């Protein structure tokens, strides 16, 4: 009976000691001893840990390729209001133009007809003005009745309204104010009509050639107004899911990052890619229309005092994240906290701060073999990260 009690007491003590040892191992895993032959067999490779980020900064993310385009609301069409035949073309596509600059000239019988009508109405308005002034003088002298003066005033209003209507039509068609004054003064009708730029910018399209027949309202040129550009990036559908509106894309030579304003919901039939559109916050000379550019996504933020590692260098075990540090005696499992991830890159901090320092040799290949050794010490696998 006495021996039985002693046996029970010894069993309890041994159980308590074993529990204490296992808890210590769980809290601070022992160094994994691996022979040179085992290292070669497992294919273990290490990477020196770079110095941690000293402050919060954008994380270098996906590399993207795209093309500079003009914003849809910054494009304007040039369309003559009158018909005619192109006489000569004075500009070429992709040329910078200024508002009012002559793009081409054309011979327009319709323009000549409008000039003739305007000239006639302008002369009628001048005569009506002179008649009104004469009738007002006669009325003041008591020679004619008030009704005659009112009739003269009404005729003047009608004549001036008709002249203004033709004047506005000619202005809209491309006749400057100086040309209309010259028409009235010299009474000489112009045989050609200028097609002018309605905005300053880049002439992205020009559909004119000498001898071409132009119908009224026909688009003949497209101008991209000066201002901030868009960049449309071609992104694989699987990667586009990582990009969201508001993310920033850094383009080389540009001072400010571009802001993502739209991610296409559907893929393009030809490329099977999705379009990601990013915009400049202000105009910069680093981007030129139709230019192909390379960019890097900066959606994530690197927290201060965090170390960068490949995502594959981290395992999940016992509900924690772990990495392996090579030491003279072997490989030490170190518990870490993942503070940020971007693509295949992770940023970590050690659970026990002193266990990680710049220059530490972190295992980046052969992880599964070391994890197996760690499991052999009593851990439970919960799946790779």
From TrEMBL:
<feature type="signal peptide">
    <location>
        <begin position="1"/>
        <end position="26"/>
    </location>
</feature>
<protein>
    <submittedName>
        <fullName>Efflux RND transporter periplasmic adaptor subunit</fullName>
    </submittedName>
</protein>
<dbReference type="GO" id="GO:0060003">
    <property type="term" value="P:copper ion export"/>
</dbReference>
<dbReference type="GO" id="GO:0015679">
    <property type="term" value="P:plasma membrane copper ion transport"/>
</dbReference>
<dbReference type="GO" id="GO:0030288">
    <property type="term" value="C:outer membrane-bounded periplasmic space"/>
</dbReference>
<keyword id="KW-0813">Transport</keyword>
<dbReference type="Pfam" id="PF25919">
    <property type="entry name" value="BSH_CusB"/>
</dbReference>
<dbReference type="GO" id="GO:0046914">
    <property type="term" value="F:transition metal ion binding"/>
</dbReference>
<dbReference type="InterPro" id="IPR058790">
    <property type="entry name" value="BSH_CusB"/>
</dbReference>
<dbReference type="InterPro" id="IPR051909">
    <property type="entry name" value="MFP_Cation_Efflux"/>
</dbReference>
<feature type="domain" description="CusB-like barrel-sandwich hybrid">
    <location>
        <begin position="77"/>
        <end position="223"/>
    </location>
</feature>
<keyword id="KW-0732">Signal</keyword>
